[in-house]
């Protein structure tokens, strides 16, 4: 344009004002039109950019959407994104509907035809549809939602399809269905289990009312049905201590955790102990929507627990009575129990036991008290003993303590992880074992130095032990005896050593009887050299048999002389007995005359006597009486020794006889300053016997008691006559507090006639008189404590 203006210079052109105005107006309009065109272009450019951006965003959203839009034109052309080919497994994006079907990919014939018919229906009737298709060769599941496309999208006759990949959803749905089926099956099984449970179970809703009970609950409350129980609200548990079943359930809901209690419950008319548990059931939000409960019968359990407690108590009482020391440590290695021997052995108090001190600490304290053995490495020893708890088997040890005590310790792990410790004091056994070894050596030395020949045979007849005298007696080589030959083999080669070889069979039979029949046999054999031997076989407690052979050659030689001497002694004894009888008779005759004349003088046949003469006559009469009793005693003693003592049998009033003996002895006791007392029972009655001899028996016992007590106890001496009786017989006891008569007691116990002091003849005669009446006499005497004589006589003599 500038070129145009240059070709027409202004100074040569003459324009009018109107033309200039028109040109100016045109130029202004042209400028405005240009400006408007520029603004319009800029606006259109911006709009195009916005639309392009929106298109890109929409395309991105469509691409990112889980659903894929597909437009099917009326001519069956397809407009879709590339995802459609990936979902269907096609090599390239389909351009028409028929390309959706393939051989190894895409839709199969049935699916392709089903989709075609659905699209035709949508085109004709605008009817939406939903299909589920599975491409060939793929596990993918595609859900197709179809409907007539909007006019602005595809035009008339077009169908808009929305495809979504439902593979994961289908899997999740299938899994959810399986889980639902499994949950339903588990619920039904659980319901059946709850119903079949042998113990009551129930469920409470949030308002604590029963909503579900099982058959066991119905039986327990003796109801007709579960509906009746729920309708009437029948509770299984009665209120205990003011707490009802609903209160316990409310407490479980408040605590948010299971609550249990032990209450008595009446089930089918029987009182039982039940453990009732209430469990709150909460949803995911924590809201409790109900309380489940169950009750377990623990009657047997409580009974067993009680029995177990009684057993433990009895066991511990028994352990306290054992001589072995026993302690029990629990699973935590703490001391649970220790019996009395264990406490004494390890110096434990009741507080130490109740403290539950650990085993390791106990070992430390025992070591300080010298109750563990001295070891080089104590920490190692201590750990090794703590490891006893983990060992499967028992451990045994011998502990030698500082004070010389020998303990045998047994550690037995218990099933609950604890330890049972048993300590046995074997100090005495160890000492006895040492003593036994010493005794064995002493026995061997003793065997070899005994005067008798000794051999021990085992139960099978083999020679077990022997001494050197046995070997020398039979002249047997040591190596033969060391082979432990059988008795038949051994004795078979020794027959020639006997005067009568056939007697060797007697030796064998005696040994066989001791080993097999366990009977004792004795015998006598003579050797060929003239020696005589007594032998005996004795069964031993261990099953062996002891053979003893004693050389009696010298005694045989003395036997003849002794026999002759015995005959002479018997003849002398007969002469002595005859002499005593004769002397008793010869003494009694003049004594009778003296007594008779003395009685005459006392009676006044010779006139009145002076006082002094009367005293002399009384002394003579007393001496006559004493001498007469002594003569009778000597005569009875002689007859008793000769076996000719005869007693008369007549009823004797025992009470009268004893009263008379006391009355006659009291003057003598008073003269000796001895207290004489009698304790006579009313049940004495009568016995069959010789009254004079029984009277002398009691008088002699009282006389001896007074005589022995008087010298030792001038003041305070006491003699007691005690008598009692029953249906079988009587018992007379004479006791004193004198010096005692041990020698006389020994003589009477041996059954001899000898005695010490003046009581010997009296006691010997008393024993014979008691024996002649069929009774027994017992003498007890202790030096410085007195003497007691007990005489027992039968009723019938």
Automatic annotation (TrEMBL):
Signal peptide: none
Keyword Ribonucleoprotein: no
Ranges annotated as spanning the membrane: 20-38
Annotated EC: 2.7.13.3
Group of enzyme by EC: transferase
MF terms in GO: kinase activity
Annotated ranges, domain Histidine kinase: 582-797
tRNA-binding recorded as keyword: no
InterPro entries per the UniProt record, alphabetical: HATPase_C_sf (IPR036890), HATPase_dom (IPR003594), His_kinase_dom (IPR005467), HisK_dim/P_dom (IPR003661), HisK_dim/P_sf (IPR036097), PAS (IPR000014), PAS-like_dom_sf (IPR035965), Sensor_HK_Regulatory (IPR050736)
Top-rank taxon, per record: Bacteria
The reaction(s) this protein catalyses: ATP + protein L-histidine = ADP + protein N-phospho-L-histidine
Alphabetized UniProt keyword annotations: Kinase, Membrane, Phosphoprotein, Transferase, Transmembrane, Transmembrane helix, Two-component regulatory system
A Pfam match: HisKA
Protein name per UniProt: histidine kinase
Lineage: Bacteria, Pseudomonadati, Pseudomonadota, Alphaproteobacteria, Sphingomonadales
């Amino acid at each position: 344009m500038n070129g145009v203006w240059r070709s027409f210079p202004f100074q040569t052109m003459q324009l009018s004002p109107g033309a200039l105005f028109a040109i100016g107006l045109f130029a202004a309009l042209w400028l405005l039109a240009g400006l408007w065109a520029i603004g319009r272009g800029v606006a259109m450019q911006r709009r195009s950019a916005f639309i392009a951006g929106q298109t890109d965003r929409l395309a991105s959203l469509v691409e990112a959407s889980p659903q894929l839009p597909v437009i099917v034109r009326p001519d069956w052309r397809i407009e879709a994104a590339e995802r459609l080919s990936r979902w269907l497994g096609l090599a390239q994006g389909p351009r028409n509907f028929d390309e959706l079907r393939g051989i190894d990919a895409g839709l199969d014939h049935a699916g392709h035809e089903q989709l075609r018919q659905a699209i035709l229906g949508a085109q004709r009737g605008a009817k939406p549809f939903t299909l589920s298709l599975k491409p060939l060769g793929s596990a993918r599941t595609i859900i197709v939602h179809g409907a007539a496309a909007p006019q602005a999208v595809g035009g008339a006759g077009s169908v808009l399809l929305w495809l979504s990949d439902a593979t994961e959803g289908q899997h999740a749905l299938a899994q959810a269905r399986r889980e639902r089926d499994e949950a339903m099956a588990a619920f039904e099984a659980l319901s059946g289990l709850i119903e079949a449970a042998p113990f009551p179970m129930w469920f409470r809703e949030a308002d604590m009312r029963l909503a579900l009970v099982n058959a066991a609950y119905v039986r327990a409350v003796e109801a007709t049905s579960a509906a009746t129980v729920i309708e009437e609200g029948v509770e299984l548990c009665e209120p205990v201590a003011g707490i009802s079943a609903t209160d316990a359930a409310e407490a479980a809901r408040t605590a948010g955790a299971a609550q249990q209690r032990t209450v008595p419950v009446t089930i089918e008319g029987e009182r039982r102990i039940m453990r009732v548990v209430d469990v709150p059931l909460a949803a995911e939000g924590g809201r409790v929507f109900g309380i489940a409960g169950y009750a377990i019968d623990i009657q047997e359990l409580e009974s067993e627990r009680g029995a177990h407690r009684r057993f433990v108590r009895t066991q511990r009482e028994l352990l306290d009575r054992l001589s072995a020391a026993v302690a029990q440590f629990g699973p935590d290695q703490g001391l649970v129990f220790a019996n009395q021997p264990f406490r004494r052995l390890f110096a434990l108090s009741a507080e130490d036991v109740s403290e539950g001190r650990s085993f390791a600490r106990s070992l430390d304290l025992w070591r300080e008290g010298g109750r563990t053995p001295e070891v080089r490495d104590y920490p190692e020893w201590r750990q090794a003993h703590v490891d006893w708890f983990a060992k499967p088997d028992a451990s045994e040890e011998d502990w030698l303590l500082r004070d010389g005590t020998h303990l045998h310790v047994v550690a037995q792990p218990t099933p609950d992880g604890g330890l049972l410790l048993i300590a046995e004091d074997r100090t005495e056994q160890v000492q006895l074992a040492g003593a036994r070894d010493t005794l064995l050596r002493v026995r061997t030395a003793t065997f070899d130095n005994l005067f008798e020949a000794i051999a021990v045979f085992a139960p099978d007849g083999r020679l077990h032990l022997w001494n050197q005298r046995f070997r020398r007696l039979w002249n047997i080589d040591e190596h033969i005896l060391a082979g432990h030959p059988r008795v038949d083999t051994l004795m078979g080669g020794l027959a020639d050593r006997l005067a009568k070889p056939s007697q060797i069979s007697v030796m064998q039979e005696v040994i066989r009887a001791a080993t097999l029949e366990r009977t004792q046999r004795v015998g006598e054999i003579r050797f060929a050299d003239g020696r005589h031997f007594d032998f005996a076989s004795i069964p031993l407690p261990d099953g062996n048999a002891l053979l003893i052979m004693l050389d009696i050659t010298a005694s045989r030689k003395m036997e003849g002389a002794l026999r002759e001497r015995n005959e002479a002694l018997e003849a002398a004894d007969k002469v002595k007995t005859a002499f005593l009888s004769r002397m008793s008779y010869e003494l009694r005759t003049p004594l009778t005359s003296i007594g008779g004349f003395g009685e005459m003088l006392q009676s006044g046949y010779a006139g009145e006597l002076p006082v002094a003469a009367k005293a002399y006559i009384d002394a003579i009469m007393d001496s006559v009486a004493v001498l007469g009793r002594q003569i009778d005693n000597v005569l009875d003693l002689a007859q008793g020794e000769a076996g000719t003592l005869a007693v008369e049998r007549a009823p004797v009033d025992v009470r009268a006889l004893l009263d008379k003996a006391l009355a006659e002895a009291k003057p003598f006791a008073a003269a000796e300053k001895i207290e004489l007392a009698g304790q006579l029972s009313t049940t004495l009655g009568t016995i069959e016997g010789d009254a004079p001899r029984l009277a002398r028996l009691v008088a002699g016992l009282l006389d001896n008691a007074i005589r022995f007590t008087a010298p030792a106890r001038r003041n305070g001496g006491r003699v007691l006559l005690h008598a009692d009786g029953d249906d079988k017989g009587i018992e007379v006891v004479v006791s004193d507090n004198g010096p005692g008569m041990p020698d006389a007691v020994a003589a009477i116990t041996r059954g001899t006639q000898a005695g010490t002091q003046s009581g010997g003849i009296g006691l010997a005669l008393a024993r014979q008189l008691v024996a002649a009446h069929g009774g027994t006499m017992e003498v007890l005497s202790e030096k410085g404590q007195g003497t007691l004589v007990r005489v027992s006589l039968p009723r019938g003599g």
